[in-house]
Design a protein that fits this description.
The chain is mostly helical and 152 residues long. The protein has helices at residues 2-24, 28-34, 41-70, 77-103, 108-151. The chain is built from five helices and no strands.
Length: 152
């Protein structure tokens, strides 16, 4: 009987020692899932940079929508369609970022890599179309001014 009690006590002590070792080890996976990405300073800096890029693209999209309305007669259907699709893509990117900021789980670097790729693609198209349409709009304005000056 004494042997059984001694074995039970030693088993209990070993179990307690193992439990203490486990308690001291940080559970990185659990911390990683529980931590909101917005609590990570590097992610906060990334979001700040992305917000500036998104604001810049939104400003250019506003210009593109203005051009699409005012230059309809001179723009191809393909260009108008591209402006609409870029507007949709920008809204999806903004939604993706907002969703990740609120509920993001997992490694934010993976999100960053995918998001940067998508944003780069959209930004390139927005900048290209914006440059072309600003030039076209300015050329039309010059022609209109020249015609108006001749009429006077």
């Amino acid at each position: 009987m004494k042997k059984l009690i001694l074995i039970s006590i030693s088993l209990l002590l070993v179990t307690m020692a193992s439990a203490q070792k486990l308690a001291k080890k940080p559970n990185y996976k659990l911390k990683h899932i529980e931590a909101s990405p917005m609590t990570i300073p590097a992610f906060q800096g990334y979001v700040s940079d992305i917000d500036m890029q998104m604001t810049n693209n939104e400003s250019k999209m506003s210009d593109l929508n203005f051009f699409a309305q005012n230059l309809q007669a001179t723009l191809s259907k393909k260009t108008v369609s591209k402006i609409k699709s870029l507007d949709i893509e920008m809204n999806e990117l903004k939604s993706d970022l907002d969703t990740y900021k609120k509920y993001g789980k997992g490694d934010w670097h993976i999100f960053q890599k995918e998001f940067d790729s998508d944003l780069k693609f959209v930004s390139k198209d927005v900048n290209y179309l914006h440059t072309i349409l600003v030039r076209e709009y300015l050329m039309i304005a010059r022609v209109d001014n020249a015609n108006h000056a001749k009429a006077i």
